[in-house]
Amino acid sequence: MKVLYSTLFYLALPLILMRLIWRGFKAPDYFKRWNERFGHISLRTSKQKLIWVHAVSVGEAEACRPLIKGLQQRYPEHQILITTMTPTGSTRVKSLFADSVLHVYLPYDLPFAIKRFLKAMRPEFGIIMETELWPNLILICAEQSIPVVIANARLSARSARGYQKVSKLTQQMLQSIPLIAAQTQSDRERFIQLGADKAKVHAVGNLKYEISLPASVIERAESIRALWGNRPVFIAASTHEGEEEQIIDAARKIRGQFRDLLLVMVPRHPERFDRVAALCRRAGLNTLRRSEGKPCSSQVQALVVDTMGELSIFYGTADVAFVGGSLIAHGGHNLLEPAALSRPVITGPHYFNFLEVTQRFLEHHAAIEVKNPEQLADTVIELLKAPQRRAEMGDAGKLLIEQSKGASQRLLNLIDIHIRHAKR
Questions:
Q1: Is the pLDDT score of 70 beyond 80?
Q2: Which of 35, 176, 229, 319 could form a disulfide with 40 if both were Cys (CB 3.0 to 4.6 A apart)?
Q3: Is the model's pTM score more than 0.85?
Q4: Domains in the chain and their CATH numbers?
């Protein structure tokens, strides 16, 4: 199965390169550092021992913050290498960690590229965030006695059915992993059903609950909001294709009740910034882009945040927050960032990628689920009219976060035990 997988990957390589080029026309950073995607690493490392952490993109980079801090405290003699797959992830790593970590792209899952990468970096052990199960990467690490931990692992029922289709390869991968730190008991059970060793799979909680926003975020949000005056602000963040039109329709209905509404739009991917700004303008909205650097006057109806690393600040400016990827069947995004700022949160019906977190928020009345643009508009109108309810939802969300912390320490303790055992 491994040979067949590698053969298919080689055959698909022209399509992968064409996709990389296509994405490069939308986001030019995809044209850069191709050598790293094939394992050619020009990064100079010292003779220090190295711990490697893979965070595929922005969300995983954010989630690994407490883990990186804990690793630096527990292993002060080690260098930390963080790999990503996307330019936005790369930018976020540099923004969060600056020169305190090393960073390169993880190469494609081709045997020669993986071997070249491991030879260049020589990690003592690796930690893969979420569920990036690349067969060659994991199995070659096992062959070279490099223990790999799957951290903050989640596995939906749909994903489990997909892995079941290649059950032999999946089982071979999972049995070579010394530690899988799953988010929930349901995730743990799915990994075990796919063939992971029961003794090596633990439910430790969700690292994303470890969110801790600096005071500067709140200060910047308050200073921006002060410039906008007392107008109502509705943010729609991490939005995707097919979703913005629905949000603009909802905003049109909201504006019938709140004429001075400011809609803040934050598309998930930078290559879509131009399109979303154009959508807003075609809908007749007086639109400002954040990158223009102009004041957001009372005449501006839609603000498109087309800069990186400012999402938390703009969550802090809003009265009500909608978390995107959920009005369409994308699977949703993380509710915890607006909740950490005590904002009432709205989600669409498609949140299967963040099922456990979202369900807990819904059960504790810290979030509201809507099915369509009409319900979204009605819910935002109700919340804008009810400041007490907004405050109660915000307090409930923040309390949930505080009560759910501790996953990073449990994970670090398990790493100490399992990695020490695996290195014997």
A1: yes
A2: 35
A3: no
A4: 2-205+406-422 (3.40.50.11720), 215-403 (3.40.50.2000)
